[in-house]
Structure formats: structure tokens, C-alpha cells
Specification:
Blueprint (H helix, E strand, L loop, with lengths): L1 H12 L7 H12 L7 H15 L28 H14 L3 H17 L12 H17 L5 E7 L2 E7 H15 L5 H25 L2 H8 L1
Helix pairs in contact: 2-3, 2-5, 2-6, 2-7, 3-5, 4-5, 5-7
The structure holds zinc ion (ZN).
Length: about 220
């Protein structure tokens, strides 16, 4: 009975879940993990905490000033974007948190709220809920298989139209979360600088060996 009532509440309040768990974990891992290796567990937990622990899905939307769909019936009347300040709060919390994996957890929570604002049905009102969660499920499935290269779409009746999401949209979401939290893409930069450093050290070593005639001696000894 209680369950049925909850379901009823969900249906009438137009609660919006946002990306599914797998997509949220992927986004958080891409953004946060390079800075906090070893905190996978906390990052995974933070990535889904707003949906699974906080149960505040009524605040995961972001109604922008300009309407994102062609039909005004589904356009929010005023801009109202609680997800962004929530993401900002958790980013600040992360910045002040001294414990490494706790810090990673807060960043992952921030990434959840900000990522949800990138789902088109978090920018609309009164949309068909099966279409809304249908798109999110398709994204989760496709990104779970190959996050680097996918494209999904769903044909909806309310609002009428076909709505798509691709790996390029996912990359854009990730880079927005990186900008917002200040966690710039780090892993790659580090890798590049390591390769550069290795190259410089090797070249330097070769030069020193040549100067000291070590190379020619090595050749003679053979
Ligand atoms: Zn959410």
C-alpha cells in the first residue's frame, strides 16, 4: 500500500531522476578518479547518492531561460535550476574536506547534480515520464557498452519528437563537470608530461654517455 502511494506520488509530481546509476558512475569516475586514485568506492557511492540516498530527485532539474523543446506546453514558466547550486554546495564541501576519499565523495555528488542538468527532460515540464526514463535507460545501456562511441534516440509523444543523446553529448557533460568542479582533465596531461620527462632523461643520459666515450667503449668490448 505504502509502495503504491509512493509510486502515485512519483507519477503526479513529475519527479525526474536524471542519468541512471551506471552513467553517473562513469561520469564521476572520469572526472574525479584521476585526482583521487584508490577512492573508487567513495566515488561510486557519491555518484549515485542523490538518487539512492538523498531521495531529493525533485531538485535534480534545471529549467533554463530558453525553452529546449519546440512545444511551449512543455516549457517551464520560469527559470529554476536547483541542481546547479546543489552542485556548487558539494563542490565547496569537497574543497574544504581534509580527508582524501571523503573529498572525492563530495566531488562525485556534485558531478551527479550537474550532470543531471544535461538531460533534456530535466529542462522540460509535464513530459511523458516513460519517454524521459526511456531515454535515460537507453543512454545507460549504450554508454555501459561503449561510452566512447554511441548514439541513442527515442521517439516521444509528449513532447512530440525524437530525442537523441550521443557519446559527444556525454563528453560535453563530462567536460562541463570538469569545468564546474575545477577538476580539469588531469590524467592525460600527467601521462604526456611523464612521456616527455622520460624522453628528456633518456636523451640526457645518451649525451653524457657519448661525452664520456662510454658508448664507444661498450662497442669495443663486444
Ligand atoms: Zn539525479
Amino acid at each position: 500500500m505504502a509502495r503504491a502511494f509512493l509510486l502515485f506520488l512519483l507519477l503526479v509530481s513529475g519527479v525526474a531522476f536524471g542519468f541512471k546509476a551506471g552513467t553517473h558512475r562513469y561520469i564521476a569516475e572520469q572526472v574525479v578518479l584521476p585526482y583521487f586514485p584508490g577512492c573508487e568506492k567513495e566515488i561510486d557511492a557519491g555518484a549515485v547518492a542523490p538518487d539512492s540516498d538523498f531521495h531529493d530527485t525533485a531538485r535534480h532539474h534545471c529549467y533554463p531561460e530558453k525553452c529546449m523543446v519546440g512545444d511551449s506546453r512543455y516549457c517551464p514558466e520560469k527559470n529554476d535550476c536547483p541542481a546547479r547550486p546543489l552542485a556548487a554546495n558539494y563542490t565547496t564541501k569537497a574543497e574544504f574536506e581534509p580527508e582524501k576519499c571523503r573529498k572525492a565523495y563530495y566531488y562525485a555528488v556534485a558531478s551527479h547534480y550537474l550532470a543531471d542538468t544535461h538531460v533534456v527532460f530535466h529542462n522540460t515540464v509535464q513530459e511523458d515520464e516513460s519517454c524521459h526514463s526511456g531515454l535515460e535507460e537507453k543512454i545507460d545501456k549504450a554508454a555501459g557498452k561503449n561510452p566512447e562511441n554511441f548514439e541513442v534516440s527515442i521517439a516521444c509523444s509528449a513532447p512530440k519528437g525524437t530525442f537523441a543523446f550521443s557519446s559527444a553529448d556525454l563528453r560535453k557533460t563530462i567536460s562541463d563537470v570538469q569545468d564546474f568542479t575545477g577538476l580539469a582533465p588531469r590524467k592525460m596531461q600527467e601521462d604526456y608530461s611523464l612521456i616527455m620527462l622520460a624522453g628528456v632523461v633518456l636523451a640526457g643520459a645518451l649525451l653524457v654517455m657519448r661525452r664520456r666515450g662510454l658508448l664507444s667503449r661498450l662497442k669495443h668490448n663486444r
